[in-house]
Amino acid sequence: MNKGIMTLAKARQLTGDVWELLLTGDTSAITAPGQFVNLQLPEKFLRRPISVCDWTEGSLTLLVKEAGPGTRELVRLPAGTELDVLSGLGNGFDPAQAGGGAVLVGGGIGAAPLYGLAKRMAEQGRCPTAVLGFRTRADAFYLEEFAALGAKVLPATEDGSLGVRGFVTDVLKELSECRCVLACGPTPMLRAVHALPQLCGGQFSFEARMACGFGACVGCTIQTKNGPRRVCKDGPVFQKEEIVW
Fold it and tell me: Which terminus, N or C, of the chain has the lesser number of Cβ atoms within 10 Å?
Protein backbone atom coordinates (compact mmCIF):
# COMPACT_ATOMS: atom_id res chain seq x y z
CA MET A 1 0.00 0.00 0.00
CA ASN A 2 1.18 3.50 -0.80
CA LYS A 3 -0.19 6.80 0.48
CA GLY A 4 0.48 9.82 -1.67
CA ILE A 5 -0.84 12.73 -3.65
CA MET A 6 -2.10 12.23 -7.19
CA THR A 7 -3.24 14.94 -9.58
CA LEU A 8 -6.41 14.80 -11.65
CA ALA A 9 -5.24 15.34 -15.24
CA LYS A 10 -8.60 15.10 -16.99
CA ALA A 11 -12.13 13.71 -16.78
CA ARG A 12 -14.20 12.36 -19.67
CA GLN A 13 -17.89 11.50 -19.52
CA LEU A 14 -18.56 8.10 -21.10
CA THR A 15 -22.31 7.70 -20.43
CA GLY A 16 -24.97 9.53 -18.47
CA ASP A 17 -23.45 8.45 -15.16
CA VAL A 18 -20.05 6.89 -15.92
CA TRP A 19 -16.84 8.92 -16.19
CA GLU A 20 -13.23 8.17 -17.02
CA LEU A 21 -10.67 9.88 -14.81
CA LEU A 22 -6.95 10.11 -15.56
CA LEU A 23 -4.68 10.79 -12.58
CA THR A 24 -0.94 11.28 -12.52
CA GLY A 25 1.39 10.26 -9.73
CA ASP A 26 3.13 7.30 -8.16
CA THR A 27 1.53 3.99 -9.22
CA SER A 28 4.36 1.71 -8.05
CA ALA A 29 2.17 0.02 -5.42
CA ILE A 30 -0.29 -1.26 -8.05
CA THR A 31 0.85 -4.72 -9.08
CA ALA A 32 -2.24 -6.59 -10.36
CA PRO A 33 -5.47 -5.90 -12.25
CA GLY A 34 -8.42 -5.91 -9.88
CA GLN A 35 -6.77 -3.93 -7.11
CA PHE A 36 -8.32 -0.65 -6.01
CA VAL A 37 -7.49 2.80 -4.67
CA ASN A 38 -9.10 4.76 -1.85
CA LEU A 39 -9.54 8.46 -2.59
CA GLN A 40 -9.87 11.24 -0.03
CA LEU A 41 -12.21 13.94 -1.32
CA PRO A 42 -11.86 17.53 -0.09
CA GLU A 43 -13.79 18.06 3.17
CA LYS A 44 -15.09 14.45 3.21
CA PHE A 45 -14.29 12.13 6.12
CA LEU A 46 -14.62 8.70 4.49
CA ARG A 47 -12.57 7.75 1.46
CA ARG A 48 -14.08 6.41 -1.77
CA PRO A 49 -12.85 2.98 -2.94
CA ILE A 50 -12.53 2.85 -6.76
CA SER A 51 -11.36 -0.13 -8.85
CA VAL A 52 -8.27 0.42 -10.96
CA CYS A 53 -9.17 0.33 -14.64
CA ASP A 54 -5.64 0.66 -15.97
CA TRP A 55 -2.26 2.01 -14.95
CA THR A 56 1.13 2.87 -16.35
CA GLU A 57 4.25 4.17 -14.70
CA GLY A 58 3.07 7.57 -13.54
CA SER A 59 -0.62 7.46 -14.56
CA LEU A 60 -3.80 5.87 -13.29
CA THR A 61 -7.12 5.41 -15.11
CA LEU A 62 -10.33 5.06 -13.12
CA LEU A 63 -13.90 4.53 -14.30
CA VAL A 64 -16.33 6.07 -11.84
CA LYS A 65 -20.11 5.73 -11.68
CA GLU A 66 -22.03 8.53 -10.03
CA ALA A 67 -23.69 6.80 -7.10
CA GLY A 68 -24.09 9.63 -4.61
CA PRO A 69 -22.89 13.09 -3.61
CA GLY A 70 -19.27 11.95 -3.17
CA THR A 71 -18.77 10.42 -6.59
CA ARG A 72 -20.80 13.22 -8.17
CA GLU A 73 -18.32 15.70 -6.71
CA LEU A 74 -15.34 13.56 -7.67
CA VAL A 75 -16.09 13.38 -11.39
CA ARG A 76 -16.63 17.14 -11.56
CA LEU A 77 -13.43 18.22 -9.86
CA PRO A 78 -11.37 20.56 -12.06
CA ALA A 79 -8.20 19.37 -13.75
CA GLY A 80 -5.21 20.01 -11.53
CA THR A 81 -7.00 19.01 -8.31
CA GLU A 82 -4.69 17.12 -5.96
CA LEU A 83 -6.14 14.06 -4.22
CA ASP A 84 -4.85 12.07 -1.27
CA VAL A 85 -4.78 8.46 -2.54
CA LEU A 86 -4.16 5.09 -0.93
CA SER A 87 -3.07 2.85 -3.82
CA GLY A 88 -2.20 -0.81 -4.33
CA LEU A 89 -5.05 -2.00 -2.10
CA GLY A 90 -6.48 -5.50 -2.16
CA ASN A 91 -5.60 -8.68 -4.02
CA GLY A 92 -6.42 -8.64 -7.72
CA PHE A 93 -6.90 -11.15 -10.50
CA ASP A 94 -4.23 -13.69 -11.34
CA PRO A 95 -4.07 -13.86 -15.16
CA ALA A 96 -1.78 -16.90 -14.98
CA GLN A 97 -4.65 -19.02 -13.63
CA ALA A 98 -7.02 -18.02 -16.39
CA GLY A 99 -5.71 -20.13 -19.25
CA GLY A 100 -6.13 -19.36 -22.91
CA GLY A 101 -9.92 -19.69 -23.12
CA ALA A 102 -10.84 -17.44 -20.21
CA VAL A 103 -14.00 -15.36 -20.29
CA LEU A 104 -14.10 -11.94 -18.64
CA VAL A 105 -17.57 -11.12 -17.34
CA GLY A 106 -18.50 -7.60 -16.27
CA GLY A 107 -21.77 -6.09 -15.14
CA GLY A 108 -22.02 -2.32 -15.56
CA ILE A 109 -19.15 -0.53 -13.83
CA GLY A 110 -17.76 -3.99 -13.01
CA ALA A 111 -16.21 -3.92 -16.48
CA ALA A 112 -13.63 -1.38 -15.23
CA PRO A 113 -11.00 -3.68 -13.67
CA LEU A 114 -11.51 -6.23 -16.45
CA TYR A 115 -10.02 -3.80 -18.96
CA GLY A 116 -6.70 -3.75 -17.13
CA LEU A 117 -6.90 -7.54 -16.89
CA ALA A 118 -7.57 -7.89 -20.63
CA LYS A 119 -4.65 -5.58 -21.37
CA ARG A 120 -2.21 -7.68 -19.32
CA MET A 121 -3.51 -10.88 -20.93
CA ALA A 122 -3.08 -9.34 -24.40
CA GLU A 123 0.51 -8.44 -23.51
CA GLN A 124 1.03 -12.16 -22.81
CA GLY A 125 -0.33 -13.07 -26.24
CA ARG A 126 -3.77 -14.16 -25.00
CA CYS A 127 -6.99 -12.66 -26.35
CA PRO A 128 -9.90 -13.35 -24.01
CA THR A 129 -13.62 -13.13 -24.61
CA ALA A 130 -15.29 -10.21 -22.81
CA VAL A 131 -18.97 -10.60 -21.92
CA LEU A 132 -20.22 -7.18 -20.78
CA GLY A 133 -23.71 -6.50 -19.49
CA PHE A 134 -25.54 -3.16 -19.40
CA ARG A 135 -29.11 -1.95 -18.99
CA THR A 136 -29.32 -0.34 -22.43
CA ARG A 137 -27.12 0.63 -25.36
CA ALA A 138 -26.86 4.13 -23.89
CA ASP A 139 -25.27 2.69 -20.74
CA ALA A 140 -22.56 0.74 -22.59
CA PHE A 141 -18.94 1.87 -22.44
CA TYR A 142 -15.41 0.68 -23.29
CA LEU A 143 -16.57 -1.81 -25.94
CA GLU A 144 -14.17 -0.36 -28.51
CA GLU A 145 -11.36 -0.24 -25.97
CA PHE A 146 -11.72 -3.97 -25.21
CA ALA A 147 -11.91 -4.79 -28.92
CA ALA A 148 -8.75 -2.76 -29.58
CA LEU A 149 -6.90 -5.15 -27.26
CA GLY A 150 -7.94 -8.07 -29.45
CA ALA A 151 -10.70 -9.28 -27.12
CA LYS A 152 -13.86 -10.79 -28.55
CA VAL A 153 -16.58 -8.53 -27.14
CA LEU A 154 -20.04 -10.00 -26.51
CA PRO A 155 -22.41 -7.38 -25.06
CA ALA A 156 -25.78 -8.00 -23.44
CA THR A 157 -28.46 -5.45 -22.60
CA GLU A 158 -31.62 -5.89 -20.59
CA ASP A 159 -33.77 -4.26 -23.29
CA GLY A 160 -32.02 -5.89 -26.25
CA SER A 161 -30.86 -2.57 -27.72
CA LEU A 162 -27.29 -3.91 -28.00
CA GLY A 163 -26.09 -7.48 -28.37
CA VAL A 164 -28.00 -10.29 -26.68
CA ARG A 165 -31.28 -9.40 -25.02
CA GLY A 166 -31.00 -10.31 -21.34
CA PHE A 167 -28.10 -10.74 -18.95
CA VAL A 168 -24.49 -11.90 -19.10
CA THR A 169 -25.66 -15.35 -18.03
CA ASP A 170 -27.70 -15.62 -21.22
CA VAL A 171 -24.51 -15.12 -23.22
CA LEU A 172 -22.50 -17.55 -21.09
CA LYS A 173 -25.12 -20.29 -21.48
CA GLU A 174 -24.41 -20.32 -25.22
CA LEU A 175 -20.72 -21.11 -24.78
CA SER A 176 -20.05 -24.56 -26.18
CA GLU A 177 -17.32 -25.61 -23.78
CA CYS A 178 -16.36 -25.35 -20.13
CA ARG A 179 -14.61 -22.06 -19.44
CA CYS A 180 -12.78 -20.31 -16.65
CA VAL A 181 -14.56 -17.06 -15.75
CA LEU A 182 -13.09 -13.89 -14.28
CA ALA A 183 -15.99 -11.74 -13.16
CA CYS A 184 -16.72 -8.40 -11.55
CA GLY A 185 -20.11 -6.83 -10.95
CA PRO A 186 -23.04 -6.59 -8.54
CA THR A 187 -23.59 -9.50 -6.16
CA PRO A 188 -26.75 -10.85 -7.87
CA MET A 189 -24.81 -11.11 -11.14
CA LEU A 190 -21.88 -12.86 -9.48
CA ARG A 191 -24.22 -15.32 -7.78
CA ALA A 192 -25.97 -16.13 -11.07
CA VAL A 193 -22.69 -16.58 -12.93
CA HIS A 194 -21.28 -18.74 -10.13
CA ALA A 195 -24.27 -21.09 -10.41
CA LEU A 196 -23.77 -21.86 -14.12
CA PRO A 197 -22.84 -25.52 -14.65
CA GLN A 198 -20.50 -24.82 -17.57
CA LEU A 199 -17.86 -23.09 -15.45
CA CYS A 200 -14.62 -24.93 -14.72
CA GLY A 201 -13.20 -22.56 -12.15
CA GLY A 202 -12.93 -18.82 -11.90
CA GLN A 203 -12.15 -15.67 -9.95
CA PHE A 204 -14.86 -13.33 -8.68
CA SER A 205 -14.33 -9.71 -7.64
CA PHE A 206 -16.77 -8.54 -4.95
CA GLU A 207 -18.16 -5.10 -4.27
CA ALA A 208 -18.56 -4.05 -0.62
CA ARG A 209 -18.94 -0.94 1.50
CA MET A 210 -15.55 -0.07 2.95
CA ALA A 211 -14.51 2.36 5.65
CA CYS A 212 -10.74 1.91 5.83
CA GLY A 213 -9.91 -0.13 2.73
CA PHE A 214 -6.97 -2.02 4.26
CA GLY A 215 -8.52 -4.45 6.74
CA ALA A 216 -8.48 -2.52 10.02
CA CYS A 217 -12.20 -1.94 10.54
CA VAL A 218 -13.39 -5.43 9.45
CA GLY A 219 -16.54 -3.80 8.09
CA CYS A 220 -16.50 -5.57 4.72
CA THR A 221 -16.19 -9.16 5.99
CA ILE A 222 -17.88 -11.96 4.06
CA GLN A 223 -18.18 -15.67 4.85
CA THR A 224 -16.13 -18.13 2.78
CA LYS A 225 -15.28 -21.83 3.01
CA ASN A 226 -12.06 -20.68 4.66
CA GLY A 227 -13.94 -18.68 7.29
CA PRO A 228 -14.59 -14.91 7.48
CA ARG A 229 -12.58 -12.92 4.93
CA ARG A 230 -12.26 -9.18 4.40
CA VAL A 231 -13.16 -8.00 0.91
CA CYS A 232 -10.71 -5.10 1.07
CA LYS A 233 -7.71 -7.03 2.42
CA ASP A 234 -8.22 -10.69 1.44
CA GLY A 235 -10.10 -9.81 -1.75
CA PRO A 236 -11.74 -8.19 -3.53
CA VAL A 237 -10.98 -11.17 -5.81
CA PHE A 238 -11.82 -14.63 -4.49
CA GLN A 239 -11.51 -18.06 -6.08
CA LYS A 240 -14.78 -19.64 -7.24
CA GLU A 241 -14.29 -22.66 -4.99
CA GLU A 242 -14.07 -20.67 -1.74
CA ILE A 243 -17.22 -18.56 -2.17
CA VAL A 244 -20.20 -19.19 0.10
CA TRP A 245 -23.51 -17.57 -0.84
Answer: C
Integer Cα distance of 113 and 131 in angstroms: 13
Assess contact for 40 and 85: CB atoms under 8 A. Answer: yes
CA distance 105 to 175: 13
Task: Give 10-27 pLDDT, tens digit per residue.
Answer: 999 999 999 999 999 999
| Residue 72 DSSP symbol | H
Burial of 4-17, coded b for 16+ CB within 10 Å and e otherwise, reads eebebbebeebbeb
What pLDDT, in 10s, does the model give residues 110-145? 999 999 999 999 999 988 899 999 999 999 999 999
Rounded to an integer, what distance in angstroms lies between the CA atom of residue 164 and that of residue 217? 41
N residues, the chain: 245
Nearest to 180 by CA among 198, 167, 162, 159: 198
